[in-house]
């Protein structure tokens, strides 16, 4: 099998923060931007990038969000405003010359969807994919399990190193279904991502302000959405993701996400792209193909 060539770039966001991103596939194909989750990096999508069935007809792009991985790690409060995160995504779009990409976000990375849609019309992207995640910051207390919520205090504290270490170990173990054993190399890589993030960046990420009005306006306007649920997830309550995107508390006259599809991947936990890669690929590419055909 031929080794796929990856193009890597360090881009500059509007405030000067460096954003690391890379891409694989043919740039002329429909693009999918992947956004990772809490305290990790875009390397969580390594097996997606290595899958030729993903990249043969689609241009895959991923980036380390600010405060994570190989991207800049600003710590001032103003550097974590919603607009800053939207501009990071814009830097990726411009840096790879993307045209109306699909956005597949995972876990807490799904909150970036609300940032993007707060500062752009729904037509800026082709569709959104919520992968076992939190579509806006206010949804976290309702969707997160007690285990996930219990991670937050030790991850944002600098006063108890043993507690932070034990919580980090438990957090990474909890990313997959109890019956799934992460390869040890993957386990160590995920822990390494956690270690790379300054505790202040973690606190800023979790405490940043966000207005999800634009997110719900996009849903009302018919922007296609796919929700991917892992029934064995110990981080999020799957059914509550649907409740969150259909919530009527954030936009007057909103009756629910107009164009919504939900896929449950049996046996998967919080990382269906690792645990059930074939089923995950089928769900994502099926959704993308359907949306593209509807545009013709």
TrEMBL record:
Keywords: Hydrolase. GO terms for molecular function: hydrolase activity. It comes from the Eukaryota. The keyword Plastid does not apply. It holds the Pfam family Abhydrolase_6. Residues 32-283 form the AB hydrolase-1 domain. One of its GO terms (cellular component) is membrane. This is AB hydrolase-1 domain-containing protein. It comes from Ceriporiopsis subvermispora (strain B) (White-rot fungus).
């Amino acid at each position: 099998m031929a080794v796929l060539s990856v193009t890597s770039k360090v881009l500059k966001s509007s405030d000067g923060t460096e954003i690391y991103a890379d891409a694989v596939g043919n740039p002329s194909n429909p693009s999918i931007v992947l956004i990772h989750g809490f305290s990790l990096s875009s390397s969580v999508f390594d097996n997606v990038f290595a899958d030729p069935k993903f990249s043969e007809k689609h241009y895959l792009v991923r980036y380390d969000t600010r405060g994570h991985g190989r991207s800049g790690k600003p710590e001032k409060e103003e550097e974590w405003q919603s607009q800053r995160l939207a501009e990071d995504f814009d830097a990726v779009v411009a840096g790879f010359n993307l045209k109306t990409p699909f956005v597949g976000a995972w876990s807490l990375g799904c909150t970036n969807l609300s940032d993007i849609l707060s500062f752009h019309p729904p037509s800026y992207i082709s569709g959104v994919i919520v992968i076992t995640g939190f579509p806006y910051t206010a949804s976290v207390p309702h969707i997160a399990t007690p285990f996930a919520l219990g991670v937050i205090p030790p991850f944002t504290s600098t006063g108890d190193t043993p507690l932070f270490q034990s919580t980090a170990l438990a957090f990474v173990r909890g990313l997959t279904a109890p019956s799934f054993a992460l390869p040890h190399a993957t386990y160590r890589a995920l822990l390494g991502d956690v270690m790379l993030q300054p505790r202040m960046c973690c606190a800023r990420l979790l405490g940043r302000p966000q207005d999800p009005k634009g997110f719900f306006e996009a849903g009302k306007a018919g922007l296609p959405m796919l929700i991917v649920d892992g029934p064995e997830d110990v981080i999020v309550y799957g059914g509550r993701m649907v409740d969150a995107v259909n919530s009527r508390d954030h936009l007057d006259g909103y009756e629910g996400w107009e164009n919504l599809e939900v896929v449950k991947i049996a046996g998967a936990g919080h990382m269906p792209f690792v645990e059930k890669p074939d089923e995950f690929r089928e769900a994502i590419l099926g959704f993308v193909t359907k949306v593209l055909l509807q545009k013709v």
